[in-house]
Amino acid sequence: MGELEGRVEGHRDGHGFVVPDDGSPPVYLAPQEMRTVLHRDRVRVRIVRLDRKGRPEGRVLDIVERRKAPIIGRLLYEGGHWIVAPEDRRYGQDILIPKNATASAAVGQVVSVELTEPPSLHAQPVGRVAEVLGEIDDPGMEVEIAVRKYEVPHHFSAEALAQAAALPAHVRAVDRRRRIDLTDVPLVTIDGEDARDFDDAVYAEPYHGGKGKNALSGWRLVVAIADVSHYVKPGEALDRDAYERATSVYFPRRVVPMLPEKLSNGLCSLNPDEDRLAMVCDMLVHEDGSVRAYQFYPALMRSHARLTYTEVASVLANTRGPEAARRVELVPHLLHLHEVYRALLGQRSRRGAVDFETTETKIVCDEDGRIEKIVPLVRTEAHRLIEEAMLAANVCAADFVARAEHPSLYRVHEGPTPQKRLALQNHLKALGLGLHLSDEPTPGELQAIAQSVQGRPDAMQIHALLLRSMQQAVYTAANVGHFGLAYDAYTHFTSPIRRYPDLLVHRVVKALLGGRRYRLVPSELTRAPEPHRGGPAAPRQGKPASPQTALWEAAGAHCSANERRADEASRDVQAWLKCRFMREHLGEEYDGSVSAVTAFGLFVTLDALYVDGLVHVSELGREYFRFDETRQELRGERTGVRYAIGTRVRVQVSRVDLDGRKIDFRMVRDGADDALLARGRGASPGPAEPTPGDGRRNGRATKAAGGERKRASGPGKRTKPGAPRR
Questions:
Q1: CATH number for the segment(s) 586-703
Q2: pTM, two decimal places
Q3: Which long-range contacts (C-beta less than 8 Å, at least 24 apart) are formed by 688-696?
């Protein structure tokens, strides 16, 4: 039929897929075909047939490139042979280790393996132990595994460390030249209690100026951002390491930073009472929340206080309270910041920007790195204040670059695809919401839906559905706007310590201020990356790109892919910690809500612990359950019992699989509860009406007594899709 090249994505059940380089649909590989390849190998395949749904199945013709990255797993001794069972089940095969290649590792220890012989039809892969990481229950082992499993660079090069060590400890006289002195302006940082790097500081004051039609009444809003570009120069060792990482990666109790600590926590951190170099966005905000004027300039600043969100929220809630008394000289400035925030918030509402209600959680660990508790993150007025100030600065940066017609990276977020729009429309209709989506939905339409369901018991789940209907935000040289925030142009300018795109935007802004152009230099790093699971879409079609535009697109694709990598590594660690936490709660019962419905069961979020787990269909009773994809519900054919998103349930923790990052629940209820639940969901006992659609998915009957356990969100994960990053 046809030949193509792509990357292998293994599946823990033994089969796999080839993700083609050209963006065409994945090609299925049967378990027999997977015997000669490993997860993330690059191969050339021939499509040999199409299944009855028209999906391609392939045969491996050639291995184009073997993945050279080490494989992480546990060393075992079975049947007289040493083997390593990969921690990532997508590899599908154990690795044989010769007895003289175990590097003195003990049975059960976590090791890193380098392959010495690839797999074949008749032999499993062979390797040697390259690194012994330690025991599976050692504190921090989950992070050590994740950074290697997802190939997150976690050691700086010797050249980068030497360059960082050679930097001065303080701002020098030569660094102060040609900068606006803002050291007398009471800029403050506002961050979380556990923050260690401070890359933004804010200040606001009332402003009244101009006459007649030009009169402006509002505020001056100053956002000062650490001037990382002064110390990290293009092409140098620090820059190469930062670009390779593209972002800092945040785990509970540990951060893998984009820059060495001397920069991230020292020279480039806006620590209180220390002179620091900054790039400033100085704005005039009208009382209606619109930014009427702005300017960028390099500055010398000094943070007058390191404040926390909790502290600022307390001051704003009670200006006569103890927190306000401790910061009495800053209270007027904080009130001005709050005033400008309220104006910006009003403008956000008028734009129709999307603002969904979701619950974010924080894992609190003990000294050994184990979970003590999982708590909801409460977004205060202080959180929102900083968010709106940063959004305003980012928009000004995008406008400044766009007006100059200079190549750069934009933060692009597109709305629902036609397929996702139709699916969302059908789902809303099935829920009884008579809300219509236009062919090209606006952010305001989605926001109106979100507001209309406030007060419903399934409001949070509906908000999650709205979020999933939109595409992921990416970095790209093509400015097509930010759907969720309802901006025509948006970029990232405010976090150059932890995001490489922000550093690039700083360089562009500086070049424009100096009357110059900033040019990316071709290098091994700026070549287009290989496609990444969960990463950005294929490059946009159109007229051939200029060499500079092509380099910017490659940089954007690289940063987007590494952002996804960081997200995956962070989620993997959180899933590990939650599984280890839930092992201590086996057999216990909890109340929760159904957060997702699939043909093979229900995902339930526990109220008290904020942990998700699966109730398999085999735990729902001795009858057939039919999965209605449109309504996103399971319905019993005999009793008519319905389980849909938002359904309240009580479950028991029945099984925890640490290696598979899986938590299983068992439904706790009796026959009387069935009838009550059916009435509560509007169902009546008796056979369910057949539903139209695909006979295998929409309206598929699933036998409760068995059925294959499948994944909810692709190979290697059972997690709910999260909100798109802004």
A1: 2.40.50.140
A2: 0.86
A3: 688/626, 688/635, 688/636, 688/637, 688/640, 691/626, 691/628, 691/630, 691/631, 693/629, 693/630, 694/629
